[in-house]
Amino acid sequence: MSLYKYLKFGTVEAGTDEAGRGCLAGPVTAAAVILPEDFKLELLNDSKQLSEKTREKLRPMIEAQAISFSYTHLEPLIIDKINILNASIQAMQESIMKLTPIPEYIIVDGNRFKPLNNIPYSCIIKGDSKYMSIAAASVLAKTYRDDYMNQIHEEFPMYNWKKNKGYPTKEHREAIAKYGITKYHRLSFRLLPEQLKLDF
């Protein structure tokens, strides 16, 4: 299915999306993108539908063609303090505010957002597989978050974040049970199933 370019033609429209919402470790990362009218990128789709190699290939192409793009990492401390939904929305809002120009309309992947400086917006379920700017934001959010997880993997290789990216895989949970937690883990998340208890 080909993606739509804009929801509101004739306005400066930004698409935004986040990555890492369901992870046990690492930040939630959001990106926002404003694309030009002549934007073309055949391979572009929801980042979850693309291979890691394709996402890596797409990122510089998106950045080269975009009018403006930005991304934001929000750390586990903030996630634990305000909860993951609020942190996801805050990361998207911060990314939007870094764009130049500030958009006149925002399209958001998913069903939740909060008003931002009176800029009108629409929440679009599965927006990353419907609109180019949201798909582009999903690729940026995912690749910048993956880079971050690869980096902190070097610090704590026993959790294998290079592979699981902080998601709750069996291997990740076994490592938490064995080695405990790090400063990158989200304490407000259920890090281990009931049968495995964690001593803080």
UniProtKB/TrEMBL annotation:
What cofactor does this one take?
A: Mn(2+); Mg(2+)
**Cellular component aspect of the GO annotation:** cytoplasm; ribonuclease H2 complex
Q: Name one GO biological process term.
A: mismatch repair
Q: How is the cofactor bound?
A: Manganese or magnesium. Binds 1 divalent metal ion per monomer in the absence of substrate. May bind a second metal ion after substrate binding.
Which molecular function terms from Gene Ontology are attached?
Answer: manganese ion binding; RNA binding; RNA-DNA hybrid ribonuclease activity
- UniProt cross-references to SUPFAM superfamilies, sorted A to Z: Ribonuclease H-like
Quick one: which residues bind a divalent metal cation? D17, E18, D109
Q: What is this protein called?
A: Ribonuclease HII
Q: Which organism is it from?
A: Flavobacterium lacus
